[in-house]
Design a protein that fits this description.
The complex is a heterotrimer of chains A (259), B (272) and C (284).
Chain A (H helix, E strand, L loop, with lengths): L5 H22 L3 H6 L4 H12 L2 H34 L1 H14 L8 H8 L3 H26 L2 H9 L4 H39 L5 H10 L3 H29 L10
Helix pairs in contact in A: 3-11, 4-5, 4-7, 4-9, 4-10, 6-7, 7-9, 9-10, 9-11, 10-11
Chain B lengths: L8 H30 L9 H14 L2 H33 L1 H16 L5 H9 L3 H25 L3 H9 L4 H38 L5 H10 L3 H29 L1 H11 L4
Helix pairs in contact in B: 2-10, 3-4, 3-6, 3-8, 5-6, 6-8, 8-9, 8-10, 9-10
Chain C lengths: L21 E12 L2 E12 L3 E5 L6 H8 L7 E6 L2 E2 L7 E4 L3 H4 L6 H11 L4 H14 L15 H14 L4 E5 L7 H18 L2 E6 L2 H7 L2 E6 L4 E7 L8 H5 L2 H15 L16
Parallel strand pairs in C: 3-8, 3-9, 6-7, 7-8
Antiparallel strand pairs in C: 1-2, 1-4, 4-5, 9-10
Helix pairs in contact in C: 3-4, 3-5, 4-5, 7-9
Classes of the chains: A mainly alpha (259), B mainly alpha (272), C alpha/beta (284).
Chain lengths: 259, 272, 284
């Protein structure tokens, strides 16, 4: 069996994952973990099963996903157009350079207290903070896209007298997308962290962050682990979803051909 | 080492103009905010003059830097350094040993997909709210970008160099220190940059929940006790702190990757 | 204890190229990659101080053979014996010069650091490393480039640094993998003469792999001709052009042309048993 083959890889991975789970299982039974009441994989999964039957769980998942999605959409809506515009002109790029550089290093989670004062312990607060965090990578990549837009392709498009719509849909948009995509990937994963972080700090009801905090406050380690597993699953789905989307939308780009 | 070419007078004037273009908007914005907020009655957006006054009083004159910034800084650097060492060490092992890396991939992908903030309650449950918790959180969460980038960097070491290492019988330490590490350095640096930003974010959140001390705590505490102006000073100082660190990071990066930049500049110059 | 292998080609009236004891013995060497047989039943003895060139068409497996000689790959069958020891890992008495100098030198180290790296890894003192590097650079005709980075040097100079690295290592035998394939013709002649001088000066044994027949005949004491699929030793041709060689004089000798065409014909002819006919030999 060739070492590179898919069945061999699968076997290896299953074995390694099995080993990791076994290690977790065994560790949870040691005295050290027992004292701290750390749950093993079995307890975690049964706790998760319990939670799946409650409305509160799904409400929390829904709340977090909504906040994440809206925050991301908002930052796309703001970051991409502004970035493209700034990128087109050398002067505007130079002018905004320092401000963007400075503002984007402010940790967005540090702004949660301010957002709490302005918006209270609401989902809106979370959305605003999430947007504040994720707008920067999108903005920067859009500036980059605006600067490096391939003028040659534009000229070709114009010489064939493509209609405005065609030009935008078939030339400008895919090109811009290829540049902006890395920013989107960073934004999507970072924003989940910020979303949950904001929910934690703000103790916003109906979110994963709140439920995590609750489980910790009421000393329910199995539920706590179950919620962490849930956020992990969310993270994996976002990553996986983006990868799939990348394959469908950007299959033509030389940097990403071949997955 | 290639010396930087001396710039003729015309070029230094262009640099001056460039700097002016970069400076005018921030300055104008600062001035505008100053005047616009000076008469502000708003509870949430106090006058800029007051904020600056308080910043001076609390942070500079009042020893706030020593009390809060220094501990934050120490925590951050220690956590980041731990993440760097762990990430590079593990990343090198996984980068060299392809089979191990492939086998561990589901586990590493799962662990890295956990949004760091979600680990805070677990950390608090098992490690209380003291320094151990804060450091562990920063170190653990910041390790991932470095780990993944190190794996990439080490994997992409030129196969010819591998043959060179083997045929000249380099010791394992020499292979790591003089071949794998420098070859992967650009990639590792990219990971370190992301990791640094993550460290700062985690530092803020663990300080907001942990035992008193540090800038995150300061801002949170100010908000909880409705001291809006001090809260703003905290945000301002954190912004400056973060910016200064980024500049420092970029300087260090430029030094570590000196050969890389010089080589790129050299080949762009047309020779090669 | 090296059983002597019956020489494949009678030596006729040529001065002995070197001291007669074999330093490297290739015994029944075969290599297969899965079901594909790359080369098989290679037999040869390399004498001390000899300059042996291995020639063959591209893709015949010369590089794989070289890697087996250098201990970088294990053969499927047979073995390589260096100074009485079977080669199972890169031996300390052997140094390699690779074809692609831009990728075999480390861009983050200066020329001197590149040369001394293997020495420092072997725990030699700073002073000794420095001294060896100096001498090696002198030997290859490069002085004053110690502090330069490889990418600041021309292709020819980079390859000289790679050769210096091999020399400073003080091996008994140097193996070169098409070392002059990536440089221009002018530089190539300079480097060929350099290698001849080095061999003359230091008495070192050299095995050089190349696809360039002219080069092989010009440089070597014997030429090992490989061809076929799977590759086999077609012949080992003695080159009796004397020790003193130069680009113009030697290459205008009638013996040179005769040897050259002999090797060329060997490569181009169809193998007498089975297998796919060798492709247009010598083309690159």
């Amino acid at each position: 069996m060739r070492l590179d083959s898919a069945p061999w890889t699968l076997t290896l991975q299953v074995a390694a994952t099995g080993l990791a789970l076994a290690a977790w299982f065994l560790f949870a039974r040691t005295g050290l973990a027992d004292k701290a009441d750390m749950p093993g994989p079995v307890e975690t999964l049964s706790a998760l099963w319990e939670l799946w039957k409650t409305a509160g769980y799904w409400q929390a998942v829904g709340g977090t996903v909504r906040a994440w999605a809206l925050g991301l959409l908002l930052s796309i809506a703001i970051g991409v157009p502004v970035g493209l515009l700034i990128g087109r002109s050398r002067r505007s790029f130079e002018s905004t350079r320092f401000m963007i550089d400075f503002l984007r290093t402010i940790p967005s989670l540090a702004l949660v207290p301010l957002a709490l004062l302005l918006f209270g312990q609401s989902l809106t607060m979370v959305i605003v903070v999430c947007c504040l965090a994720t707008v920067w990578p999108l903005l920067i990549q859009s500036i980059y896209a605006g600067q490096h837009a391939d003028h040659y392709l534009h000229t070709v498009a114009r010489s064939f007298r493509l209609s405005r719509w065609h030009r935008i849909a078939y030339v400008l948009a895919p090109e811009a997308l290829a540049f902006i995509w890395p920013g989107l990937r960073i934004a999507a994963t970072a924003s989940l962290l910020v979303t949950i972080g904001a929910e934690l700090v703000g103790a916003v009801r109906g979110t994963l962050g709140f439920n995590l905090l609750e489980a910790q406050a009421f000393n329910q380690p199995a539920f706590l682990f179950a919620y962490v597993l849930t956020s992990c699953a969310l993270g994996l789905m976002i990553n996986g979803g983006l990868l799939l989307l990348q394959r469908r939308l950007l299959w033509w780009h030389p940097a990403w051909r071949g997955g | 080492m290639t010396a930087r070419p001396t710039q003729p007078a015309g070029q230094s004037r262009t640099r001056m103009v460039g700097l002016l273009w970069q400076a005018w908007l921030p300055l104008a914005a600062a001035v505008a905010i100053w005047f616009w907020s000076s008469g502000s009655q708003s509870y949430f957006f106090p006058p800029l003059s007051r904020v600056l006054e308080e910043t001076w009083r609390i942070w500079f004159a009042g020893g706030g830097i020593l009390r809060d910034i220094v501990p934050s800084f120490v925590r951050l650097i220690t956590g980041f350094a731990l993440a760097l060492v762990l990430g590079v060490a593990l990343g090198t092992i996984l980068g060299i040993n392809r089979t191990l890396e492939v086998a561990m991939r589901p586990v590493t992908e799962a662990l890295r997909a956990i949004p760091g903030a979600a680990l805070l309650p677990i950390a608090m449950m098992f490690l209380a709210s003291g320094e151990t918790m804060k450091l562990s959180m920063i170190a653990f969460i910041s390790t991932w970008p470095i780990l993944l980038n190190t794996i990439e960097g080490v994997r992409s070491v030129d196969p010819t160099l591998r043959l060179v290492m083997a045929s000249f019988r380099l010791s394992p330490w020499y292979r790591f220190r003089y071949v794998f590490l420098p070859a992967a350095a650009p990639q590792i640096m990219a990971g370190a940059r992301i990791s640094f930003a993550v460290s700062v974010a985690v530092m803020v959140i663990v300080e907001m929940f942990g035992t008193p001390g540090g800038m995150g705590y300061f801002i949170r505490h100010a908000q909880q006790t409705f001291q809006v102006v001090p809260m703003w000073t905290g945000i301002l100082m954190l912004g400056l702190f973060g910016y200064a660190l980024n500049v420092l990071f970029r300087l260090i990066e430029r030094r570590v990757l000196r050969w890389h930049y010089a080589m790129a500049a050299h080949s762009e110059g047309g020779n090669q | 204890m090296i059983a002597s292998v019956r020489p494949r080609h009678a030596v006729s009236g040529s001065e002995p190229a070197s001291d007669a004891s074999p330093i490297l013995a290739i015994r029944n060497l075969s290599f297969s990659y899965g079901a594909v047989r790359i080369f098989e039943e290679l037999d040869c003895e390399v004498r001390q101080g000899e300059f042996l060139c291995v020639v063959g068409p591209s893709g015949v497996g010369k590089t794989t053979l070289l890697q087996c000689l250098a201990g970088l790959r294990l053969p499927t069958k047979g073995g390589v014996v260096l100074k009485g020891n079977l080669v199972t890992a890169p031996p300390a008495e052997l140094a390699v010069v690779f074809q692609d100098y831009s990728r075999s030198l480390m861009p983050w180290l200066t020329a001197e650091e590149n040369i001394t790296l293997p020495l420092r890894s072997a725990r030699l003192s700073r002073a000794e490393c420095h001294q060896r590097a100096r001498k090696a650079l002198e030997e290859v005709g490069l002085v004053g480039v110690e502090g330069k980075y490889p990418w600041q040097l021309s292709g020819g100079m980079q390859q000289r640094v790679a050769i210096a690295r091999a020399l400073a290592y003080q091996p008994s035998i140097i193996i070169m993998d098409e070392p002059f394939a990536s440089v221009d013709a002018q530089t190539r002649s300079d480097l060929e003469d350099l290698v001849l001088n080095v061999r003359q000066h230091l008495g070192i044994t050299i095995v050089l792999v190349t696809h360039d027949i002219d080069e092989a005949v010009y440089l070597s004491d014997r030429v090992l001709v490989l061809s076929g699929r799977p590759a086999k030793v077609l012949d080992i041709v003695d080159v009796n052009l004397g020790r003193q060689r130069d680009q113009i004089g030697t290459k205008s000798l009638p013996e040179f042309a005769e040897l050259r065409s002999r090797v060329y014909r060997l490569i181009r002819r169809k193998p007498s048993h089975g297998g796919v006919p060798a492709d247009d030999g010598g083309e690159r």
